[in-house]
Amino acid sequence: MAAVMYWWRQRRHRCGCGCDDATLKAKAASSFVLNPTRVEVVSACLWKCAMAASEEKSGFKRPSLLSHVVNLRRRISPPLPENSMGNLIWIASAQPMAKHDRLGLLDLVGQVREGISKINSDFVKKLLGDERSSVILKSLKRIEEFGSKDGVDYFGFTSWCGPVFMNLIVLMETRNGDGIDAWVTLDEEEMAILENAIWSS
């Protein structure tokens, strides 16, 4: 089926957990992630709804893999200016560590945080140093080994730019900086289920 683009402005509408921006961040805070970012919270919320949509469509729980494009500029020591030229990005990944029915928003926020936090200054130092070949192979192999298995749902996120692919969620800060725009691409059937999950929660 054809991909469908779905637009969701979080600052104006409810998310899949039925909350506005501030309420959702408060609900997502835990002893593991005291102050979750908007990107972490919205990613986890949409990931949770997307897994539920996939389960409803297929009739069973499918393994799931999330990836997030990470901007390396602020993770290099010392940080580079945001307007630096070049594709200074890498891919962080996360996968549920429990069955879907035991996964709450707090769990997924923690897993998103853990995946992104691995792309830190030490990782970037190795990525740009003599160890880069082994670091690149090890990082991509981890994603490839899980994501290439039969029956695995892959959801790719980026919070700043990206082309339109199936199962891609793009997060962009709103122009005035008070919310997040989320662009979601799924197949037509799953999109209808996801929309219903978001608005009826």
Summarize the structure.
The protein is α/β, with parallel strands linked by helices. It is built from 6 helices and 6 strands, in the order βααββαααβββα.
Write out key terms for the chains shown:
201 residues; six-stranded mixed β-sheet; 6 helices; disordered N terminus
Written description of the protein model:
The chain is α/β, with parallel strands linked by helices. The protein has one domain: Chloramphenicol acetyltransferase-like domain (Chloramphenicol Acetyltransferase). It has 6 helices and 6 strands. A 6-stranded mixed sheet has the order 1-6-5-4-2-3, with helices on both faces. Helix 2 (38-58) crosses helix 3 and helix 4 (121-128) crosses helix 5. The longest helix has 21 residues, at 38-58. It starts with a strand and ends with a helix. The relative contact order is 0.23. The model is unreliable at 1-19 (pLDDT under 50). Pfam families: Transferase.
Give the helix level as a range of percent.
25-40%
Poorly predicted runs are 1-19
CATH architecture assignment: 2-Layer Sandwich
How big a fraction of the residues is strand?
Answer: 15-25%
Determine the CATH superfamily. Chloramphenicol acetyltransferase-like domain
The CATH topology corresponds to Chloramphenicol Acetyltransferase
Shape: globular
State Rg: 17 Å
Average pLDDT level: 77
The helix count comes to: 6
Described by strand count, sense and barrel closure, the largest sheet is: 6 strands, mixed
Helix vs. strand class: alpha/beta
Q: Compute the separation of the termini in Å.
A: 26 Å
What's the level 1 CATH class? Alpha Beta
Pfam family, one: Transferase
Keywords: Acyltransferase, Transferase
GO molecular function, one term: acyltransferase activity
Family: Belongs to the plant acyltransferase family.
